[in-house]
## 1
Amino acid sequence: MLRVILVATLPCLGATAAQAHPHIFIDAGLELHFDDDGQLAQVKVTWVYDDFYSMLVIDDLGLDQDYTGEIDDSEREELSGFDMNWVDGYEGDLFGFADGTPLELSGPQDWTADFTDGRITTTHRREIENGVDPDIGEIVFEVYDPTYYTEYRVAFDPEIAGRDDCTARIDVPDRDAAEAMLQDKLDEMIADGADMADIEAEFPEVGDAFAEEVRIACNGSS
């Protein structure tokens, strides 16, 4: 995700330890696709990056050199896939469960990218291995970065395709409790002598405490 671009700017921002994370802010959306057998087969993911990070990426790639806040087709092709070169072990900041059992998701496919109104929007699709029958229980997708380098908000109503008997809702975390927990962990690190560089390198994995959830239930599911 080109994190090195933003890390290089941190000394200029004068961030305190408590403000060290997140660095990137994304408005996320999920589109759930059911197959002809009524099983959840794939998820289309939308990410809309914040203005500042979008500006850094566009500048780094040498796009929008006339500063219109838009790009043409050739630039759009160059931008596409900039955030899809996932390293081994990266889960795409999306974690799915069916009745509490983790879902196996494919890597990203059919990705797109655009830049409008000063913000980058990308999409990608992920297959669900063997599909999942919603009748076994509620399906939940958690959207978060474990390292809390990126903060996600599920900013768009989830969309459902392929079934008309399913509903989706967004559950948000107790952000005050999550912030307090994060601050306690940072205070412990500082008390142990950690400086800003140490905190950045060994930031506690607290992203799940900030996770927003999309919960899908269909008629017949428990």
## 2
Amino acid sequence: MNYRIADSVVAFSLERDETLPFYVVQPHQVHGCVIHEVTDPFTTREELEGVDALVTNVPGVAISVRTADCIPVLLYDPVNKAVAAVHEGWRGTVQHLSRKVIDFMHERYGTEASELLAVIGPGIGPESFQVGHEVADAFSDAGFPMAEILADCGPKAPTADNPMAGGLHIDLWKANRWLLEEAGVKPENIQVTGICTYRNNHRFFSARREGTKCGRIINCIQLKKLYRQ
């Protein structure tokens, strides 16, 4: 699945039957908030233990995050020519990881949030992301607009067709859009794919449906080596 961000950028989320077109730097994620700047295009996963967001301003370096229901956020700074790939599971979202990445890019590259272009890629949708009270409370304590992102669907009533019926549901797409906008990204500069990995597991891996040992979606962004002037 390719994203149209800008002519100077390659960005995509790999579907089940697709293979990587080139070497892509992939971190070993732990649902934390460690951000790493990549300059070597062949950095290994072993060198990126405990990292949940990558940034670079080096053309030709392809960075990514791996997901299977979590939300991938890809960022492009067209002014300072820098990119980021962010792994936003619910824990990273609660910790405002995207905002921390934007601050990191500002310090490293001079990035202004208002100039950023963003993609919120495939991830678990609100109808499928059923949570317990402790997760809902974590979002509330972190300052999220609960009236916008939380739905109380009544008592849990799982069926064969819908194991996630009823209960509390959080909209991670809206939560991450809110994070980006709060950081200063313009609403019109945010693309949301709106594709639920749980409901589209024929196209994308879903850990909640298939188990944690399932494959992973590679969500990649790369600055092209030559920019069109």
